[in-house]
Amino acid sequence: MAQQSLGVVMNGVTGRMGYRQHLVRSVLAIQEQGGVELSDGTRVQLEPLLVGRNENKLREIAERHGLTRWTTDLDAALSDSNYPLYFDAQLTSVREESIVAAIDAGKDIYTEKPVATGVAGALDLARRAKRAGVKNGVVHDKLYLPGLLKLKRLVDGGFFGRVLSVRGEFGYWVFEGDWQQAQRPSWNYRAQDGGGIVVDMFCHWDYVLHNLFGRVQAVTAKAVTHIPERWDEQNRGYEATADDAAYAIFELEGGVIAQLNSSWAVRVHRDELVEFQVDGTHGSAVAGLQRCVVQSRATTPKPVWNPDLPETNRYREQWQEVPDNAVMDNGFKAQWEQFIRHVVEDAPHTYDFLAGARGVQLAEAGLESSAKACRVELPELSL
Predict the structure, then answer these.
(1) CATH fold for domain 142-326+361-376
(2) Residue 34 Rama label (left phi>0; alpha psi -120 to 50; beta)
């Protein structure tokens, strides 16, 4: 079988997300399977060049996985014509500058989100990429989760009738770091370093809502810092200046109302760390990372409110499991494959810098709504 190689500069692989999801579970997994299969049956094998600021960490990762190409010199990596694709998983605060450099070097670009620290910067990147004629994509990983793929199948099949509302719960308890080590890096809780759950999660909520139910037209949000003091990786106490929880109402086109709670200060009493309940005139569904259950109009029970009697209905047992109907791969890897096909054979990929800018716009609007205690409308973005 014919095969070609595609060099990819991977910047930020020493971080948790860049290493686990993008290097190991995506790029190296694609290598192990023999590359990305194209429409004509040929395969594209990825050849990573690791980039980061910590030489020791880069060397250790490269040796662990038998990789030979790594550097702390981003400019040198971008000047290497053997690596026409640039990937960025750095801290948000330094991402924009590196992407500009990659655009100027003529690289096609795939990046984690947020794509920039503000809407103006995100739109500037989109316009720069368009002028330069480089292909660009932003990670939209949650759309590839089995639970949301099943939910999309229900939407496309008309299961819900007219969608009325979406209710989402996301989060878990992140330990403060004093008596148990935190599960997330300390910069997540410092606003000056680009932290905060609104900046982190509203970019996700934008593309989930946009691609399943419609564009977000307005938001009313409250962002809070429930845990004001935390301890970092060196067990030093620090002030948590970023929000660790956000409670929001999103108004979507078509009249759909979405309510999403996001929190790193909540203890889990649900089946998965994120769950979405969708209610429509003809049926409802609850989707998580993996599972999705439904209840149709014809099978909906008829509860009666009576607080004087013990509840005997087993409501969870009255829902039906949605089958997989297909083999579902790792969501990050699936989007890598889609973007590679976009780069090599111009296959469709709609999750570009403009889509990434919409996520940044929603995060900005959410923070503005919280700060001003008001409803904020979102104009439709364009280039």
Answers:
(1) Dihydrodipicolinate Reductase; domain 2 (3.30.360)
(2) left
